[in-house]
Records
---
Amino acid sequence: YAVHSFSLSYKPVSVKGFEASVTLDNAFNKLAMNGKGVPLSGRTVSLYTRYQW
């Protein structure tokens, strides 16, 4: 099986040091298991913001 993840980030030129991103893990909501047979989480969306000065 294959589990697909996608990520998109944005760094505006007008706000130096700021970054926002969104990540979609297990995009197609496949049932996947780790090496010990424990099910992995389903589709997950994460939002991140970061400011570095």
Note: The CA atoms of residues 24 and 45 lie 5 Å apart.
---
Amino acid sequence: MSHRILGILAILTIFLVGQTWVFAETEKNSQQEQKTQFKADVKAVRDQLRSERDALKSKYKTKIETLKTSRQNELNSAKTPEEQETVNQKYRQELKTLRDNAKADRKSLHENFKQTKESLRSKYGRPNKDKDKK
């Protein structure tokens, strides 16, 4: 009788150990898939950021080229040095405004990227390592 009980307990123990191992492997695979998906999502967000940044770059490059052309046309039509200086001052101010706008747009893009990355971190339950270091 006691041998039967010991045999049944041994079988149950083996079964439970096996189930625990299966559960652990399943959990490990799930975490690995989640990590891979997180990395893929972050890469997609980075790629989108790069393409938006490149689009902004070309947009402002075009605006600056247009501004340079219009400045040159105005300089050619200006007859006195005072008129030329006025054109140059106007050009400098417009160029400064364009650069400031470009800088603000890039900063906005970067902030959006950081927020998106943080939302991905919270979605996948991955802590921010940078915040832990501080």
Note: Residues 2-77 form the longest helix (76 residues).
---
Amino acid sequence: MPRQLLLILALVLAALQPALAREAAPAVPDPALEKRIMSLAAELRCLVCQNQTIADSHADLAVDLRKQIGEMIVKGQSDDQIRAYMTERYGDFVLYKPPFKATTLLLWVGPALLMVGALTALVVSLRRRQRASDDAFDPDTPDDANADGSLR
């Protein structure tokens, strides 16, 4: 009986856990400032996470960078100044939309080049296959007649 009572008590305590949960307090009391921080953080890549923004990441570095963005905004820096600072410190990799320049040319043009190459290879392959099937069967050739004559 004590074992069942302990099990029931554990289940009741587990069921009451959501009642203790609270909504996280915003990092900045001003909602407009919080919105600006999160929109800017959504444009910057987390450097330790796989393909996440600073806004989406829960990594310590992302939390620190969000705080730093907030401090820079409070000091009166513009979004462009903050982006420039982050780019200077971490390189173009930190930007989710890297600028179009010589070092990122392949990044912007590469997918289109791959698509054109794949379509070209597909068209060439289909034409070769069509030519091969046209050459393989010709109903006017008397191949069957010669084969029948040699068997008799």
Note: Helices lie at 2-20, 31-41, 60-74, 79-90, 105-136, 143-151.
---
Amino acid sequence: MTGDVLAPRGEGPKIIAHVIPDLNVPWGGAGFASSLRRKHPAVWEQFQADALRKSQGLQLGQVYTGQIAEQVSVAHMVAQHGIGQSKTQRLRYAALADCLVKVRDLAKESGASVHMPRVGTGHGGANWDIVKELIQEVLVDRGVATTVYMLPR
């Protein structure tokens, strides 16, 4: 769907899911994360506080959550190894699958739909067909209403 994932469509509770790197650095300098950080700085600050409390640092497969509005939460999925230019793909499919299972469980518990950008295909360098298949298998086929947004060109 073409649109802005930060303005998710539909009724009821919503979870906005996106991918972040496994480094304890202030993310949000590029891609979707920068839009999220600019539009909802309190969510970014909450994530930073939560992440700093974890002495072992960010681990692939973890999901951190935050609240944007009464019925809109965000799931920060740690599924990318490192940041910046790389000769190898940074998104880790196994970590993404683990994160999606956790997001699915959160969605089912709260009756929420899931909304996300095309995760992992920008800075993560992943193959969208593989990511799309994971989303289909883990979320959609398990009964979670899911919308993937693309920005208008």
Note: The first strand starts at residue 14 and ends at 21.
